[in-house]
Amino acid sequence: MIMNTKTQNIILLAIFIISFALLFYGQKNVGYMGLTLELIGLAGLVLILYIYNKRYK
User: Fold this and answer.
1) Where, by residue number, does the polypeptide cross the bilayer (predicted)?
2) In sequence order, what E strands does 1-57 have?
3) Which of 7, 17, 22, 33 could form a disulfide with 41, with the two C-beta atoms 3.0–4.6 Å apart?
4) Left if phi > 0, otherwise alpha if psi is -120 to 50, otherwise beta: which for 12?
5) Angle, nearest 10°, between helix axes 32-55 and 5-28?
């Protein structure tokens, strides 16, 4: 299954927005739950950077 570039960009934008929301929401919560949400958000941002760099390598 091959997606076109526009579909991939929309999916990456959605992951970016969700990851940023998780970072901000996790920062408000104190404790392990907040830390977990921040780490998931950070993993999403790193995933986006990996896909972007892989595309233009």
Assistant:
1) 9-26, 32-52
2) none
3) 22
4) alpha
5) 160
Q: Indicate the burial class of 30 (C-beta count within 10 angstroms; 0-12, 13-18, 19 or more).
A: exposed
CA 22/CA 44 separation, integer angstroms? 9
φ, ψ dihedrals at 56, nearest 5°: -105, 25
Q: pLDDT tens across 4-45, in order?
A: 888 888 999 999 999 999 999 998 888 899 899 999 999 999
Q: For residue 14, which amino acid is it?
A: A
Query: Hey, what amino acid is at 37?
Result: L
